[in-house]
Design a protein that fits this description.
Blueprint (H helix, E strand, L loop, with lengths): L3 H32 L2 H8 L2 H40 L2 H18 L2
C-alpha cells in the first residue's frame, strides 16, 4: 500500500509530466502561428487603407487578366474559323450560311 508521501511524489510526477506536455503543445502552437504569419495578417486587417489598396490593385489585375485572356481566346477562335472558311467544308459552310440568313432576316435585309 502507498503511503501518503509516495502518493504525493506520484502526483507531483503526473503534474510535472502534464505541465511539460502543456508547454510542448503551447510551443508547437506558437510555431504554427508563426508559420501562418498571423501577426502580419492581423496588422493587414487593422489597416483599412492598406486593405483597400491591395484589394483594388488585385481587382484591377484580375480584370486586366480576364480581358487579355478573353481577347486571346477570341483571336484564336477567329483564326480557326477563318481557316475553316478557307477549307470550304460543306457542313460548316451550310451552318454559317444558315446563321447569315437568320441574322439578315432578323435585321430586315
Amino acid at each position: 500500500m502507498e503511503t501518503s508521501e509516495e502518493h504525493d511524489k506520484h502526483g507531483e510526477n503526473e503534474v510535472s509530466a502534464d505541465w511539460l506536455n502543456f508547454k510542448d503543445q503551447v510551443s508547437k502552437l506558437a510555431q504554427v502561428l508563426e508559420k501562418m504569419n498571423l501577426a502580419e495578417y492581423i496588422s493587414y486587417l487593422n489597416s483599412p487603407r492598406r486593405m483597400l489598396l491591395i484589394n483594388f490593385a488585385s481587382g484591377l489585375i484580375r480584370g486586366l487578366g480576364i480581358a487579355l485572356g478573353a481577347t486571346i481566346l477570341a483571336g484564336i477562335a477567329l483564326i480557326i474559323l477563318r481557316h475553316l472558311v478557307f477549307l470550304n467544308l460543306p457542313v460548316i459552310g451550310g451552318i454559317i450560311a444558315e446563321l447569315v440568313k437568320i441574322v439578315n432576316a432578323h435585321n430586315g435585309y
